[in-house]
Design brief:
single chain, alpha+beta, Alpha-Beta Plaits, 5-stranded mixed sheet, 36% strand
C-alpha cells in the first residue's frame, strides 16, 4: 500500500481525566485514519495512527484545536512505512480505538 504514513503524537498538559481520548475518537471519525489513543502512566496521552500524510497532519491538528485549553505541548513524529494497524481490538468507523 503506497503512501501510508505512521504517526506518534504525545500530548502534555492536563490531558487525562478531561475526556481527551473520547474527543480524539470523535475527531478521528472525520478523517481516514486507523490507530488508537491511550493514557500513559506519566500523565501524557499518546495517539498512534496510520493513513495518508495529509490526513494524519490534519487529524492531529484537529485534536490539538479541539483540546487546546488542556494541551501545553505536543510532540509528533510522522514517518512512511508499511501498514501495521489493522485488526484493532475495538474497530470503529475509522478503525480508531481507545485503549
Amino acid at each position: 500500500m503506497a503512501d501510508v504514513y505512521h504517526a506518534h503524537a504525545y500530548f502534555e498538559g492536563r490531558v487525562q481525566g478531561v475526556g481527551f481520548r473520547y474527543a480524539a475518537l470523535e475527531v478521528a471519525r472525520e478523517f481516514e485514519v486507523s490507530g488508537y489513543v491511550e493514557n500513559l502512566a506519566d500523565g501524557r496521552v499518546h495517539i498512534e495512527a496510520e493513513g495518508k500524510h495529509a490526513e494524519l497532519e490534519s487529524f492531529i491538528s484537529a485534536v490539538e484545536e479541539r483540546m487546546a485549553h488542556f494541551i501545553k505541548k505536543t510532540n509528533r513524529d510522522i514517518v512512511e512505512r508499511l501498514p501495521q494497524l489493522s485488526g484493532l481490538e475495538v474497530p470503529l468507523f475509522t478503525g480508531f480505538a481507545i485503549r
